[in-house]
Specification:
GO terms for molecular function: DNA binding; transposase activity. Pfam families: DEDD_Tnp_IS110, Transposase_20. By secondary structure, the chain is an alpha/beta fold. The chain is 51% helix and 9% strand. It folds into 3 domains: 18-126, 2-Layer Sandwich (Nucleotidyltransferase, domain 5), CATH 3.30.420; 134-223; 228-270 and 280-348, no CATH class. The chain has helices spanning 2-14, 52-60, 75-84, 98-101, 108-121, 134-166, 189-222, 227-230, 238-248, 259-263, 288-302, 310-320, 326-348; strands at residues 20-25, 30-36, 42-49, 65-70, 88-92.
Amino acid sequence: MKKLTTTMMQQTLNKQDRCLTVGLDLGDRSSFYCVLDEAGNVLMEQKVSTTPKAIKEIFGAMPRSRIALETGTHSPWVSRLLSELGHEAIVAHARSVRLIGESRRKDDRLDAMTLARLVRIDPHLLCPVKHRSAEAQADLTVIRARAALVRTRTMLVNAARGLTKSYGERLRGCNARGMNPKAAQDLSPELKYALEPMMLEIESASERICEYDQMLESMARDRYPEAELLKQIKGVGTLIALTYMLTLEDPYRFRKSRDAACYVGLQPGRRNSGQSEPQMHISKEGDPYLRALLVQAAHHVLGPWGVDSDLRRWGMKLAEHGGKRGKKRAVIAVARKLAVLLHRLWVSGDVYVPIRPGGRDTLPAVA
């Protein structure tokens, strides 16, 4: 009976000559959608399984519509599928739609209706985002998988060191890459027996991480030769270059290179009102992993192994005049400059000059 009702409602939608607006609240197993006509009247409210087959069956039979959905786990493939079906898919930034996230009357039906009404009024109210292509997402998955292994290895290494210290002993001094059963040879027999399986897992994780590193090098060499432009900066390797390129995907999406720093959340927030202009923390919007990698690169630039450059000199000056928190602020500022500079090198293809003629402690001009 339910299938018959759904079919009849689909036929009603197909008879509509006016533009339809749809709000789609995505769930892990099932999703809820609400269809509005031009006057804002609800034409249809239904559940649909969150599977490609079910989405294609429902929205493939629907006339071209404007469909709004929130960012989430399923939003990349759902938005691509809806676009392939001929619909205008608008992906709302979930953090920006507080009318839904902070509502006291929150359920799937109301969320879908709210999305539909917001996108019907003005899509810009949803702060729409653009998902990357399926190819870029597949390549970025390699980087995500490597990052998960690195986090797992770090957790195991910290656990192994903590367990030995609580027993009054210590592992051999070595970094995470060199952590293997040999590092536990000097431990007592009972502790060595307890930690040996963990050490084997750490060694296996390090081997898998090395395999991922080789995959990234091959990927950069075969499909992303532009990564060499970004690697001109000391402290930026293949991992950071590829993560930056795959996260932004299209360098021409930004009118200015400095907009790339805003995209990764390294730009200070703003809450100006009247004569009040408080100093805010960085927004921390965008991809957190890319932001963490840029901060790591900034630490290298300002650290003891960083080479002399205008960027390093500029960051060191900030650190000297910033008090106790000067070094931290300098690191974030250098990471922000790196985000801008990497975009500029990517777009222009210029050769990076670490120290510009004339002794100016400034960065190359950006668009």
